[in-house]
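Interim report to the steering committee. The following record documents the input for Amidohydrolase family protein (456 residues).
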Amino acid sequence: MSHNPPQNEQRILIKGAYLVTQDAELGNFVGDILVTDGRISAVGQDLADDRARIVDGTGKAVLPGFIDTHRHNWQGALRNLGPAWTYQEYRSQVQIGLGQYFDPEDVHIGNLAADLMSLDSGVTTVRDESHISNSPEHSDAAIAAHWESGIRAVFDHGWPSTEAEQWQFGSARTHPVDIRRIRNEVLSDDSARVTLNAMLRGPELSTPEVSGKDIQLARELDLRISMHVGLGEWGAEQQAIRQLEETGLLASDMTFIHCCTSTDEELRMLAARGATASVAGALEVFMPGLGQPATNRLLAAGVRPSLSVDTETIVSGDMFGVMRATLAYQQLVLAGAAGPMDRVPDLPTFDAADLLSFATIEGARAAGIDDRTGSLTPGKEADLIMICLDHANLLPATDVAASIVAGGHAGNVDLVLVAGVVLKEDGALKGGDTVFAEAAASRDRLFRAASLPLPT
C-alpha cells in the first residue's frame, strides 16, 4: 500500500541564501536552490525560473531538514513530565505505568503532537521507535499520524507496553508477528514518505536465542534494524554488540542507539561492520542511569553518529537542544570532568559544523534514506529548512554553523519543506490547530486510567 500523494507541482526558487548543503562536492556558499516536482532540481548561483515562486533567502541559511534517528513518538502528549527522572523512574512512570493504558487514539495524538513539534523546530524526518505496539490497531494509528502530519517518517515497529516487564531485560518472547502484516499490507513501499524498519531488543533486552530469531525475521522482510544497547550497568555486563559479532549477526543494516556503556572494542566492531549509531545527547546528559553520550568514543572508533531526541517526557523535542547538550558533554570531556569511559587521552573532538552533519546527512545514512534526503543534492527530495540568521538571537552570525548550534531555536525556523510540500512558512506551522486540546484530553484520560492526579 502506498499513500504517496500526487506529485507536488509547486516550483519554489530560494534566492540569495547561505546554503549549508552537506554535499562534499557542493560545499557551503551563498546561492540559490530550485525545487520542482517535490525534488531539488538545481543548486547554484544566479538561478532563474519564470514559473517558480520566489522566496527571498537574504540573511537566511538553508540546510537539509534535521533527521531524528530515535524518538518514541507515542509519548508526544506526555512531554516534559519528568526532566529530573532517572532511567528507572522513566520506565516505571511511562512505559510500565502509562503505556498499558494507551488506546489507538492516544497513540495517534501522541505521534501527531510529536511530529508537529518536530516540524516546527526543523526536523523533517523522524525515526519513530514505537514500543507501543499493544495491538495492530495501535501500530496503524501511529502510522496514520505520520501520513497526516506530512513529516517523513521511518516507523520502527517494536514491542508492546502491555506487560512491559515481560518484553525487556532477558525476555524470552520473540518479536510481535504483526510486523509481517505491516510489511506486506501497510508499508511495503520503501520509496514512500513513510517507511518501515524493525526496532529489535537484541541480546541486551531479550536473549541471544530470541535476538537471533528476531534478526532473521527482520532480514527476511528486508528491513533495517535498530537496537538499544549500552544501557547503564546492564549494558556493560551484556555487551550486546560483542555478542552479535561473535554470532555473525552484526552487519551494516543495524543502527545502535545510545552505546553509552558499550566498550571501545565494541564500537570498533560496529565500525568494522559498517553499522551506524544514534546518540541521544540531551537525554543521556539529563537522565541518570544510562551512562554518558558516546559521541567522542564513537568518533575514535571511526563512526560518525547521528543524533536523536529519545523521549519528550524528559527533554525538549528539538534538535537544537540535542546538539547543544552533546557539545556541552564534550566540553566536560575536555575539562577532565566526564564519565570514566571518556577519561582516555587524545579522544577526537567535533565542532558545530560536525553537529549539523550528525543531525542531517549522518541521520539519513543511519535511517537508510541518504539516497533521497539528508543533503541539498540535486535529484534528492526537497526536505529542507530555512533559518533566519537576522533574528536578534543569531546576529551577526559570524560563523553560520556555530550560530545555529549555539543559539538556534524553533522560532528561527522560517520555512520547512518535506518532499517539496510547504509545512511551515513565515515562521508559522501549517495545520495542527486542534492538537493542543486533543493532546491534553489524551493525557487526562491516561492519568485517570492510571489513577494519577490530574494537572491543575
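The chain is about 35% helix and 20% strand. The committee is asked to note this result when reviewing the revised timeline.
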